[in-house]
Amino acid sequence: MLEYCGAFTQMYREEAHYLERTAPWIERVGLHTIKERILDNAEERKALHERFLLGQKFAQIDPWKQRAGGAEAHEFNTIKIVA
Asked: What global pTM score does this model have?
């Protein structure tokens, strides 16, 4: 199921017009075309899904993950007051 979702998303990403939502895109290209390319063509579906996964490698980098794990915890040490 994930392969189908990823393939659909990648096909949409590659072929939709800038700022075009999925519903107008499906209407424009035709549900039959999407069915042929994703449901009926395993080779193309796999290729689209692989490109989707490749794109997600770079899109899913969390810049705050290390900081949330304590990597920069030393920045917030209590200030010591010397009398």
From this structure: 0.69
